[in-house]
Amino acid sequence: MSATHSASDLAARFDLELRGDPAWRIEGVATLARAGAHQLAFLANPRYRNQLAATGAGLVVMRAEDAEGFSGNALIAKDPYAAFAKMSALFDVRPAVVPGVHAMAVVDPSAEVSPEASIGPFVSIGPRTRVDAGAMIGPGCVIGEDCVVGAGCELVANVSLVRRVRLGKRVLIHPGAVLGADGFGLAMDHGRWLKVPQLGGVVVGDDCEIGANTTIDRGALDDTVLEEDVRLDNQIQIGHNVRIGAHSAMAGCSAVAGSATIGRYCLIGGGAGILGHLDVCDRVVVTAMSLVTSSIREPGEYSSGTPLMDNRSWRKSAARFKQLDALARQAAARNKEPQ
Amino acid sequence: MSATHSASDLAARFDLELRGDPAWRIEGVATLARAGAHQLAFLANPRYRNQLAATGAGLVVMRAEDAEGFSGNALIAKDPYAAFAKMSALFDVRPAVVPGVHAMAVVDPSAEVSPEASIGPFVSIGPRTRVDAGAMIGPGCVIGEDCVVGAGCELVANVSLVRRVRLGKRVLIHPGAVLGADGFGLAMDHGRWLKVPQLGGVVVGDDCEIGANTTIDRGALDDTVLEEDVRLDNQIQIGHNVRIGAHSAMAGCSAVAGSATIGRYCLIGGGAGILGHLDVCDRVVVTAMSLVTSSIREPGEYSSGTPLMDNRSWRKSAARFKQLDALARQAAARNKEPQ
Amino acid sequence: MSATHSASDLAARFDLELRGDPAWRIEGVATLARAGAHQLAFLANPRYRNQLAATGAGLVVMRAEDAEGFSGNALIAKDPYAAFAKMSALFDVRPAVVPGVHAMAVVDPSAEVSPEASIGPFVSIGPRTRVDAGAMIGPGCVIGEDCVVGAGCELVANVSLVRRVRLGKRVLIHPGAVLGADGFGLAMDHGRWLKVPQLGGVVVGDDCEIGANTTIDRGALDDTVLEEDVRLDNQIQIGHNVRIGAHSAMAGCSAVAGSATIGRYCLIGGGAGILGHLDVCDRVVVTAMSLVTSSIREPGEYSSGTPLMDNRSWRKSAARFKQLDALARQAAARNKEPQ
């Protein structure tokens, strides 16, 4: 099942300079610390530079300056991490997708499933849904009505697309993700909640990735939208009518409330929250567990929260936080006093 | 599949005043910004008032004061959002529930399934569980032993009710939700964790809604309880033996730890946390990502956290937070000095 | 289905001192407040001591000092909670696991399933995966290729093990959990995200428990590892290449980013976050919703955040937080002034 490539083959294929034995055989990839004689490793983060001397790796991809004095086989790359990512894909051998619909899948007669798509066991596909060529729907996935699964999409397992979810091409969705559930729309009416019908859908652009157990609600009236190449980690919550710009990435457990708009090339840290009806412009970085409470109009890095402290010290600071306004007023008053 | 109603029909049915053409035909709903000639829109939030002049909507529901000078067709409502919610339900056409048990469902012989319930494919129903008339169990749902699914409930897809989960009437549960899993009960015993058996259940009142991938653990001894009309968004965690009062609503990613009690008509913001063994009284609002660490005995709005700042400024404030107690002590000492 | 034990039987079996009627019949367990004449209750937390006088419990396990003057039947234990946990397991009667593969399960021909394992309906088991004796795979679980499910494991329902997930013995996994999904590995390459293949696996030690909808990604190159007896509550996110030491426990909604290492006997509070590439030493407690942003090298309790306040007061403190550095500089300047 494993692939083998010579060092010169890798250099040629990825247009990298090779220093060392062109015929050296590479059969897999590993970390610098653990790689063996026929494995490829990489050095990108300077803090791992001290592992280079002792590495057992048969080939290391790194920057030219890091390769000075290295006696082993080296591939020289401007961005060794990206180069490694591309090369390691050669060694990620997956079973070929076998087209066809499993005998224990249920497909509505009005659905259109490409003969080149693969539908696994215990999959349910609803009315008027379309699954294009090369799509792979893994075991236990449930796809409701009026959905589109574009060419080359992969729904790994136990994914739910509720209704009106339209995926572009090559969208990868990890297990337990739920797209197209009702948005959280409620109106209080005579002391009881009234449910606001959620009549929109979800549109996901080409090359998006959706993490395990992430949820993306469908829109109330318009659609919830992810533009192309958006990358969502696990356990993320995207409210109804959110729009996320192309090439933005969100780390695990972050959340965006309804009708917020996130720009392109944004990076949202783990556990961060973005309130509803806000606009966040392009190229904004929000650090982990920060809360965005108003629109952000300038690119840059934003944060909230307090630093970690030992609990005893923290209790003292926390108690003083409550007194901050009084302390500041006293200070202001003193500053106005004659000295 | 779509419904059509005249403006006068809508006015009569929802007891609203119509200004404009009674025969005007409405075929759907949309936002003020996007609605077309045969769509109904609404104006509730004053910040969208400027969209009114240019709207293409064939009919707009709004307050009387907003309708002054509006030349299009208008329905007048005291609460336009609630009125719109009710009217838009007319246009949320869903396929009728087809009663019966799918050939690829597995029902324990001791379970009681109403002939008027609908059990989808790949559903498993355990011993002594009862499913009442009009209930709809979607594909991939797993219901364990000793559960009750009340009349008119809907479990959309891939929902798990582990055991001893009793749902009232018209409970709506979105995909991936898990009710009745073991509470997190552990005792440390000679350096190893000892699991505390979780012998209680989960009781969910009428008209509750449970979001996608939300989890509600069953009680250790007594039950975990949601009273009627509780509304939970996605990715919420409810610990064992929690009780949530009627008509309370919680936004996405919020969490309540074991044995806490939440009152009626509470609103818990997204990502907020409530520690265990606390009591929160009725009509409490907790803002997003706040942490409740002691009981709340007065209705009102509560918060914790710090405001979002650019990262450079935030680092300075965060560093000073660690010094807060020392700063306050110095200030106090100075205040005692002779001036 | 229920068990019955005499008071003396319980005393003998768990090596506890009995004060009271040895023949008293116990048929179940309950809280001190609700227990009836034939139920066992416990008193561990001093704040429930006032419930002792009025309890209807037929037998109470508690410390010797709490039993002074109690007129009912008592079992004396140094750790009443642990003793109760062990005794209540007697009353947690579960249906016996019936070995065999359900007719509506799909098992790859190259998988090895022990004849003493139980495989439920709508379960899919992939190539080269091994399921050992006494393992129980509940309805809707999906197990991919190259996995191991050790002896006595239980996957309750709708659990996904994607690939290369190796579980030790007696691992309990609650519904909706996803182990072995791709880690969140991305490299930016000419303005687009490049996916970094995730070639490692997940290794879970004996006696671990994984909560509902928790996600544990597989490693990029090496494995993600949970040592033995790690206990994870619901909705937890564990990034790729994380290592969690034996006997550590994490409460609901907490998260650990990629390549962080957590020591043994750590307690991570609900909603807490730990950034990537950090080391947390043994016996560290992190309080709820705190964020760990650098390595912790000393055992102890750590916190971040601010206390809950009424929203009006909080707004004032929050506004002052932004001015903290300026306030501190002014104070420093004043302290240098001649008095």
Question: What do you see in this structure?
Answer:
Chains A, B, C: Residues 25-90 form the UDP-3-O-[3-hydroxymyristoyl] glucosamine N-acyltransferase non-repeat region domain. Chains A, B, C: Catalyzes the N-acylation of UDP-3-O-acylglucosamine using 3-hydroxyacyl-ACP as the acyl donor. Is involved in the biosynthesis of lipid A, a phosphorylated glycolipid that anchors the lipopolysaccharide to the outer membrane of the cell. Chains A, B, C: Pathway: Bacterial outer membrane biogenesis; LPS lipid A biosynthesis. The structure is a homotrimer of 339-residue chains. Among the domains of chain A are: 5-91, MurE/MurF, N-terminal domain (Udp-n-acetylmuramoylalanyl-d-glutamate--2,6- Diaminopimelate Ligase, Chain: A, domain 1), CATH 3.40.1390.10; 159-302, Hexapeptide repeat proteins (UDP N-Acetylglucosamine Acyltransferase, domain 1, 3 Solenoid). Helix content of chain A is 14%, strand content 29%. In chain A, strand 6, helix 2 (64-67) and strand 7 (74-76) form a beta-alpha-beta unit. With 339 residues, chain A is an alpha/beta fold. Chain A has an 11-stranded parallel sheet with strand order 8-11-14-17-20-25-28-31-34-37-39, with no helix packed on it. Chain A has a 10-stranded parallel sheet with strand order 9-12-15-18-21-26-29-32-35-38, with no helix packed on it. In chain A, strands 19-24-27-30-33-36 form a 6-stranded parallel sheet, with no helix packed on it. Chains in contact: A-B, A-C, B-C. Chains A and B meet through strand 22, strand 23, strand 38, strand 39 and helix 4 of A and strand 4, helix 3, strand 40, helix 4 and helix 5 of B. Strand 39 (300-303) of chain A pairs antiparallel with strand 40 of chain B.
